[in-house]
diguanylate cyclase (Aminobacter carboxidus), 483 residues
Amino acid sequence: MLTATLGLPAKPNTEPQLAVALIVAGIVFLASFFGILTRPVGFLAAVWPANAVLLGLMVRNPSYATVSGWLAAFAGYITADLLTGGSFFVTLWLTIANMTGALTGYLLFRLAPESDRWLQRPASVLHLFAICCAVALSAAIAGSGAARLLFGRDLLGGIAFWFITELVNSLIILPVLLTFPGFRKLRASLPASLSLATVQHALPMLVLVASVALAITLGGPGTLAMPIPALLWCSLTYRTFTTSVLTMLLCTWLLISIPANLIPLPELPDPLRSLDSLRLGIALMALCPLTVASINAARVELIERLSRAANHDSLTGALSRGAFIERSEACLRVNRDHGTALLMLDIDHFKNINDRFGHAGGDAMLKKFVRLVSHLLRPSDLFGRMGGEEFAVVLPGLDMIAATSVAEHIRQALEAQALEMPSGGKVWATVSIGVTTRAPGQHTDFEGMLLAADRALYEAKGAGRNMVRVGAQQAEAAAPTLN
């Protein structure tokens, strides 16, 4: 395996090598064939996605970066060009140049921090730009000699021409591949139905389309920058992947429409050099929305982390006491007509676990208990740590029978599992649970439910522990909890 030879980390390769080779060869062939179809002038395509697609494929799937994987990509390049009329010598030369650029980019990406690979930091786009420049330069040096052979350019002119073309394609295609969230997450993020909120969310994209239409109507070199404000609006509204897709679509359209004269531009004295300049401008234009989207994504992630730190217990991950009470009170208001159940849970003889296994053992028990209970709850349920080994659960929409059944499942699940202690040995734990409910239409406040559930919990512990007790909906006072 090439990654093992180079000492690079790789995911376990669970797919047969033949299947991987066919996947890589097929993707490279299709991407190359598309690029060949966009050759309006000269021998280089207006859009050549194959190199960026290959690089993104290898970065996202390091297990594909085997000797057979790279050879399959080589075969994909060769086959696509030969089937469309390319001569073998020139095709071989261009393919070596393409492979040189992709391999250079792969090695550089493997050295970069993981957050930079997925454009998750404000400086990630600048690092991406630096890697794309290295990719473009290595491919240009390897393939520039073909510029004189096929295009009549000298060595330096060939390097510049190839460098610009490769840089453009890398900058507009790679971000899409690096930020792709996966088909499952992408499908889950799509709106289930058309609504006013959906239309409002799509407004930046609609304005972007309108600005492109206006640019076509007006014409002139200045109109190339007309979609930029709308694209920046998109980068502030959508995730990095969506912004990358919109940027790629806009830049691809510009790269194809300019040589095809879809945008009226004044005739320039040196069309080829002017085309190089326009391509470079389009590539640099793509950096702006990508940088804004990356910074915005980092900001959103930081806010989410701060919110989680403020609202969740740092040890177990359950809601903190304050956040649990606040959300529970809001839940009661929302579910006033549907009823709500509350469970109070206390791990039995927790002090003995701490005394026997130390605080590390006690912490391990608390973490295991939270994981176990979380797996048995619904996404709409609230689970919080009230303090020490005492927890609470709010079950919206459940009556006493259903809530008692949930509590019994939790009790049995904990009783049936042993926990490996960090210091060695196993321990079995049990839990006592108090249950109370508020019927639909009642106005019992959350404090009253807490008192009732705590009273039921006290009765469960007083009756011998490791059991579920049902409490009244009101309680005058909470009795002290037994350890």
User: Anything to note?
Assistant: Residues 2-308 form one domain. The chain has a mean pLDDT of 86. The first strand starts at residue 340 and ends at 347.
